[in-house]
C-alpha cells in the first residue's frame, strides 16, 4: 500500500500539479483574508462613528433647547416688570404680581418642555412661580436649588438633573437653569430659575433614533438612570466596572457578554450638561454587514479553489506531457519538426481560464469600489478628530481609495448651514441626501477649479468641512491672499444655487498632514466666535477678522472714555470679563485684543496731554501683554485697563473744557492761515498731532458743522470780500480762496448765496 502511494504521489505530474495549485490558491486566499480584515476594521470603526454622530445629534438638539432656554432667561431677566419687582418689590401691589405670573405662565406654555419658572427676591425672601402664587421662601415646596444659588452668577448655571415637586406634590425629572438678577451684574438681588421637563427633552432626542439598531439611555454623574428603562440597561451588565468606566471616560466603546451573545456600549459625556449618553446595541446587529461580506468571501474563495484545481490540471497536462515527449525524443535521438499548433491552443485555453477567474473575483473589486466613499469619509473624519497619529496609516488608507492628497501644506474650512430654503425640511430623506451630496461635490469643484486638491465631508448635521492640500509654498501665500474671495464665492454660490445661508470658519495652514486636526480646531474656534458670517447686508473687510477675537467692543470702550462716561466704561469691561468666564479663550486669542486696547488708550492719553506715568506706573512701555497674561491672567489685565480708563477720565474731567477750547483756537487759526491751500481733516489732525476721530468729534462739537462745510463757508466769505473790494477776475478769486476747479467754485458759491460769483458782482456793482 505504501509503495503504491509512493509511486502515485511521487510522480512528476502530481508534484507539478500541487505546485501550480498552491501558487494559484495561496495568493487568492491571502488577498481575500486581507480584504475581509481591512473591511471589518473600517466597517467597525465606521459603524461606531455613525452611532457617535447620532449621539452628537442628540446632544446638539439638547444644546439647542438649552440655548433657547438661556435666551428666554436673558430676555426675561431684562423684563421691566421683573426688574422692578427685584429692585423695588411691592408685595401689596397684587396687579403687578399678577402681571408677572401671567408673563411667566405665557413663556412656560409657549415652550412645551418648560414645566415651571421661579423668580426669587433675596431681599424679601419671596418666590413668584409660573404655576401661580407668591410664597415665602420657608413655605416654598421646592428649595433643593437654593444651595446651588450661593455666590455671584455672571452667566447661566445648569444644575444636576433633579426631581422637582410642584404645589400639588407631583414630581418630575427636571433640568434646572439659574441666573442672577439683575442679569450679568455683580449684585445679589435675586435669582431666575427655569425647570425643563427632562422626559420631554428625551422624547425629542430619542425620535432621531431607530429602536431596531439599539437603544439610547441617559445617566447622571452618579450612574443613576435619568432617562430610559433602568432594567433594560443594567440587567445585561454583569461587571460594575463598566458603569465606572462610562462615568469616568469622556467617550468610548465597550463590549459585554449577555445571554450567549455580545452587547456593544457606545458612550459619550455631553459637553453642555451632566448627561452621559449610552447607546446599547446587540453585537450581532452591529456586525451584520461583516457577516454578509464574510459569507460572500467564503463563497468566492471556494469557487476560486475549484477553478484553481481545474487550471492546475490543464496546465499540468500541457506542461508535463510535452516535457515527457521531448525527453523521449532526445533519448531516441529522433529529429523533426514538432507540430506546435496544439501548444498555441493550450495557451489560448489558459487565457480563457484566467479571464474566467478574474471575472469571478471582480465581485470583490466591485465591493471594495462601492466602499471607497465610506472609507474616504471615515479616514478624514478620523484625521480631523486626531484618531490617526502616523503618516504611514494615512498613506495606506489613501492608497486603498486611490487618492493623491500628499502636498506641502494643509488647511481646513468649515461651512455651517444656518438657514435653508423654506421647503427643504418637507423633502423626503432621499431627496435631502441628493441635495447634500450635490452641495458637497459643488464645494469640491469650486476649490478644484481654483487649483486646490480638496475633500469635502459632512461632519455633523448642516456642518461640512473642506480639507485642502496646497502643492507648494507659493500656492500657500496665494491661498492666504485669496481666502476672503474664496469664502465669499462659496457663500454666494450656496445662496444662489441651494438657497443656503452659510457661516464660515477658516483654520490656519499647517505643513504636516497630521496637523490637519489643529487647523480643524482653529476653524471651529473661528466659527464659534462667528467672526466670519456673511449675508446680503454684512461684509468682512479683512483676513485678520477670520482668526482674531471680535474687536468691536474696543471701539465702544474708547468712545465712552472720550465721552468721559466712567460708569459705561466699567459696564463694558464687566461684560468683557464675563465673556472670558463664559468662553474658554486661549491667551493667544485675546492677546491681540489687549494690545490694540492699550495702544488706543495710549493714543487717547496723548491727546489728553497726560504724562504716561500718570496713566500707568512705568508708562505704557512697561505693559508687556503676553508676559502679564501668562503671569497674572486675563482678570488682572481687565483690572489694569479699568484703572487706566478711570485715570484718563478723571484727568479729562478736571479741565476738559479749557483744554479743548485752547485746541479749537489752534485749529481755527491754522485753518484761517491755510484755507486757500488744499488742506484736509487728516492734515489738520497731523498738524495737531491728534487722531482723526478725535479732531472730527471736537470740531463738530464746537463749530456745530462738519469740517468741509466750515472751510467752504470760510472760502466763500473771503471770495465775497474780494468780489466787493477788488477788480480781480472771478477765476483769479477762485484760485486765491483755494478752488482749483472753477465748476466746483461756482457750485459752492451758489449753494451759499443762491447766485453765481458773476451774478453777485453785477448785483452789488
Automatic annotation (TrEMBL):
Residues 665-763 form the HTH araC/xylS-type domain. Gene3D superfamilies: Homeodomain-like, PAS domain. Keywords: DNA-binding, Membrane, Transcription, Transcription regulation, Transmembrane, Transmembrane helix. This is HTH araC/xylS-type domain-containing protein. The chain crosses the membrane at residues 12-36, 297-320. Coiled coil: none annotated. It holds the Pfam family HTH_18. InterPro entries: Homeodomain-like_sf, HTH_AraC, HTH_AraC-typ_CS. It comes from Geosporobacter ferrireducens. It comes from the Bacteria. GO terms for molecular function: DNA-binding transcription factor activity; sequence-specific DNA binding. PANTHER family: ARAC-FAMILY TRANSCRIPTIONAL REGULATOR, HTH-TYPE TRANSCRIPTIONAL ACTIVATOR RHAS.
Amino acid at each position: 500500500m505504501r509503495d503504491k502511494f509512493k509511486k502515485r504521489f511521487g510522480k512528476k505530474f502530481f508534484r507539478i500539479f500541487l505546485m501550480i495549485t498552491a501558487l494559484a490558491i495561496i495568493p487568492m486566499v491571502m488577498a481575500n483574508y486581507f480584504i475581509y480584515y481591512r473591511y471589518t476594521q473600517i466597517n467597525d470603526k465606521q459603524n461606531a462613528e455613525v452611532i457617535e454622530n447620532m449621539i452628537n445629534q442628540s446632544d446638539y438638539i439638547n444644546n439647542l433647547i438649552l440655548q433657547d432656554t438661556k435666551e428666554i432667561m436673558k430676555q426675561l431677566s431684562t423684563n421691566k416688570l421683573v426688574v422692578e419687582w427685584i429692585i423695588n418689590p411691592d408685595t401689596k401691589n397684587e396687579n403687578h404680581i399678577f402681571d408677572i405670573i401671567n408673563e411667566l405662565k405665557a413663556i412656560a406654555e409657549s415652550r412645551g418642555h418648560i414645566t415651571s419658572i421661579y423668580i426669587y427676591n433675596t431681599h424679601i425672601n419671596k418666590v413668584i412661580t409660573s404655576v401661580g402664587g407668591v410664597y415665602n421662601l420657608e413655605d416654598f415646596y421646592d428649595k433643593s436649588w437654593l444651595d446651588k444659588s450661593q455666590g455671584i452668577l455672571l452667566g447661566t448655571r445648569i444644575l444636576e438633573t433633579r426631581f422637582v415637586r410642584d404645589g400639588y406634590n407631583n414630581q418630575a425629572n427636571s433640568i434646572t437653569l439659574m441666573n442672577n438678577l439683575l442679569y450679568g451684574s455683580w449684585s445679589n438681588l435675586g435669582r431666575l430659575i427655569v425647570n425643563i421637563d427632562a422626559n420631554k427633552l428625551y422624547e425629542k432626542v430619542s425620535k432621531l433614533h431607530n429602536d431596531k439598531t439599539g437603544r439610547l439611555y441617559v445617566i447622571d454623574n452618579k450612574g443613576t438612570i435619568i432617562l430610559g428603562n433602568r432594567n433594560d440597561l443594567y440587567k445585561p451588565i454583569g461587571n460594575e466596572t463598566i458603569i465606572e468606566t462610562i462615568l469616568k471616560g469622556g467617550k468610548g466603546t465597550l463590549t459585554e457578554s449577555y445571554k450567549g451573545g455580545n452587547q456593544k456600549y457606545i458612550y459619550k459625556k455631553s459637553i453642555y450638561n451632566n448627561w452621559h449618553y449610552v447607546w446599547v446595541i446587540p453585537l450581532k446587529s452591529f456586525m451584520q454587514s461583516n457577516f454578509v461580506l464574510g459569507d460572500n468571501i467564503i463563497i468566492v474563495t471556494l469557487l476560486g479553489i475549484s477553478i484553481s484545481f481545474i487550471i492546475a490540471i490543464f496546465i499540468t497536462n500541457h506542461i508535463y506531457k510535452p516535457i515527457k515527449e521531448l525527453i523521449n525524443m532526445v533519448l531516441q535521438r529522433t529529429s523533426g519538426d514538432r507540430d506546435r499548433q496544439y501548444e498555441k491552443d493550450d495557451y489560448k485555453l489558459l487565457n480563457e481560464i484566467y479571464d474566467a477567474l478574474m471575472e469571478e473575483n471582480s465581485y470583490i473589486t466591485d465591493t471594495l469600489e462601492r466602499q471607497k466613499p465610506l472609507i474616504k469619509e471615515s479616514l478624514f473624519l478620523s484625521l480631523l478628530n486626531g484618531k490617526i497619529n502616523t503618516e504611514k496609516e494615512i498613506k495606506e488608507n489613501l492608497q486603498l481609495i486611490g487618492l493623491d492628497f500628499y502636498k506641502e501644506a494643509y488647511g481646513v474650512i468649515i461651512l455651517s448651514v444656518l438657514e435653508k430654503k423654506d421647503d427643504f425640511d418637507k423633502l423626503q430623506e432621499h431627496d435631502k441626501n441628493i441635495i447634500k451630496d450635490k452641495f458637497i461635490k459643488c464645494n469640491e469643484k469650486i476649490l478644484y477649479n481654483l487649483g486646490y486638491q480638496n475633500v469635502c465631508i459632512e461632519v455633523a448635521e448642516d456642518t461640512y468641512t473642506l480639507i485642502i492640500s496646497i502643492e507648494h509654498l507659493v500656492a500657500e501665500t496665494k491661498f492666504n491672499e485669496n481666502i476672503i474671495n474664496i469664502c465669499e464665492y462659496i457663500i454666494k454660490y450656496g445662496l444662489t444655487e441651494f438657497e443656503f445661508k452659510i457661516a464660515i470658519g477658516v483654520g490656519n495652514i499647517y505643513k504636516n498632514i497630521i496637523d490637519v486636526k489643529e487647523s480643524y480646531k482653529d476653524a471651529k474656534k473661528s466659527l464659534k466666535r462667528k467672526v466670519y458670517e456673511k449675508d446680503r447686508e454684512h461684509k468682512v473687510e479683512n483676513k485678520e477678522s477670520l482668526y482674531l477675537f471680535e474687536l468691536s467692543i474696543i471701539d465702544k470702550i474708547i468712545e465712552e472714555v472720550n465721552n468721559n462716561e466712567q460708569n459705561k466704561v466699567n459696564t463694558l469691561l464687566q461684560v468683557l470679563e464675563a465673556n472670558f468666564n463664559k468662553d474658554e479663550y486661549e491667551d493667544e486669542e485675546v492677546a491681540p485684543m489687549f494690545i490694540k486696547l492699550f495702544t488706543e488708550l495710549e493714543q487717547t492719553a496723548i491727546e489728553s496731554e497726560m504724562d504716561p506715568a500718570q496713566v500707568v506706573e512705568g508708562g505704557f512701555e512697561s505693559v508687556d501683554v503676553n508676559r502679564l497674561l501668562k503671569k497674572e491672567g486675563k482678570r488682572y489685565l481687565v483690572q489694569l485697563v479699568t484703572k487706566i480708563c478711570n485715570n484718563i477720565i478723571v484727568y479729562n474731567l478736571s479741565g476738559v473744557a479749557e483744554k479743548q477750547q485752547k485746541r479749537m483756537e489752534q485749529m481755527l487759526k491754522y485753518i484761517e492761515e491755510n484755507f486757500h491751500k488744499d488742506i484736509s481733516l487728516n492734515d489738520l489732525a497731523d498738524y495737531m498731532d491728534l487722531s482723526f476721530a478725535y479732531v472730527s468729534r471736537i470740531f463738530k462739537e464746537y463749530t456745530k458743522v462738519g469740517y468741509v462745510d466750515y472751510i467752504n463757508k470760510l472760502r466763500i466769505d473771503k471770495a465775497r470780500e474780494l468780489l466787493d473790494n477788488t477788480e480781480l477776475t472771478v477765476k483769479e478769486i477762485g484760485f486765491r480762496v483755494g478752488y482749483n476747479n472753477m465748476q466746483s467754485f461756482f457750485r459752492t458759491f451758489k449753494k451759499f448765496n443762491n447766485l453765481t460769483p458773476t451774478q453777485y458782482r453785477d448785483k452789488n456793482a
